[in-house]
Amino acid sequence: MGRRDIDESDFRSRPSKRGSRPRTKQRPEHSDAVTGLVTGVDRGRYTLLVDDDVTVTAMKARELTRTRVVVGDRVDVVGDTSGEEGSLARIVRIQERTSTLRRTADDTDPYERIVVANADQLVIVTALAQPEPRTGMIDRCVVAAYDAGMSVLLCLTKADLASPDHLRELYEPLGVEVVVTQRAASSDDYPGAVALTAESVEDVRDRLTGLVSVLVGHSGVGKSTLINALVPAAKRATGVVNDVTGRGRHTSTSAVALRLPVGVADAGAEGEARADGAGADGVGTDDGAGFDGWVIDTPGVRSFGLAHVEVAHLLHAFDDLDEVAQECPRGCTHLADAPDCALDDWIEASPEDERPARTARLASFRRLLSSRTGSDA
Ligand SMILES: Nc1nc2c(ncn2[C@@H]2O[C@H](COP(=O)(O)OP(=O)(O)OP(=O)(O)O)[C@@H](O)[C@H]2O)c(=O)[nH]1
Ligand SMILES: [Zn+2]
Prior knowledge:
This protein is α/β, with parallel strands linked by helices. The longest helix has 17 residues, at 355-371. It has helices spanning 23-29, 135-148, 165-171, 198-208, 223-230, 267-274, 311-315, 319-325, 342-348, 355-371; strands at 34-42, 45-50, 54-60, 74-79, 89-94, 100-104, 112-117, 121-127, 151-157, 177-180, 212-216, 256-261, 291-297. It folds into three domains: 8-20 and 31-94, CATH 2.40.50.140; 100-297, Rossmann fold, CATH 3.40.50; 311-371, no CATH class. It has ten helices and 13 strands. Residues 1-19, 241-250 and 266-286 have low confidence and may be disordered. α9 runs antiparallel to α10. The strands form three sheets. The protein has a six-stranded mixed sheet with strand order 10-9-8-11-13-12. Keywords: Cytoplasm, GTP-binding, Hydrolase, Metal-binding, Nucleotide-binding, Ribosome biogenesis, RNA-binding, rRNA-binding, Zinc. Pfam families: RsgA_GTPase.
């Protein structure tokens, strides 16, 4: 996306009560602004990456007090952007978002929160065992991602403990991509240091390269283990359950964006390819290998309330079903008990060889639909 100067008033559907200051007066004031990417948020302090290699601490300008700035946002920033110790810059504008991943606290809560901005894909990290996978949770994540206009990667961990076949069967009909990871056989069981097979880590890296990915997952699924394998510098705490709270060690509940290093195997070649300055996504790294993509960890996000999701909007993520559903009676819920739902006719009318695939796809879609209102199974 080209840089387009936009300020928060562009997002308002109603004129702001406080919007007494004409934008034309405001503009020249910030003409020296530079663009930063928000990589972390901590109690009103924002960590930004400016010019792809300067880390800057900033706070919001007063006019943005009531505006939420989240990880992944591209912002215009003024003031001291040197990144020097103790320096503090000021965020004056949020650039237009390409996607917004939202959640509500629960399904009846009308108050929605933006979790991450501008992400391309949601990576749902689910263990095949320990803890047992919960399809209700996965479904809700899929719905939240599609609603946000993001694609979904289902990352099934601990394949050394159980088979991924069943979950593949459930999610592949939806067009959800699946990738599987497992611990290396050589991995000794010393605390906090499970090694994943290099092959599984590189499989995941392949799917993340060049993209902004948000990782979500329940405590204990191996998300931190995976992130550490992908981004060794991340040093996410793993395998520790707090004796007092019974929960994971992470005290921070806010998202953090980490740059994804290019794979080990092709690091040399990539490093050279980028020496021509084409690497807008992060040359100038410590080891010179470069980065290509972002991994956003969301320690605080364990599930998605979906009160904000509309059926019609969700349906847009499924071109074929969306087209068929145009024939539905007005107000059709498209659920299994909906009278005269055209999606049922679509199966009735299917050629024999397509029937099993269509049936599986519709069943999966209906499961997603009911997850909007059902409880987290
Ligand atoms: N058998 C097996 N164990 C794994 C695998 N990946 C991670 N583990 C173990 O699973 C436990 C949880 O892993 P973490 O990476 O800490 O899980 P997490 O999802 O980050 O959990 P929180 O830190 O609570 O958010 C640890 O004991 C890991 O060693 C795997 O592929 N196979
Ligand atoms: Zn219908």
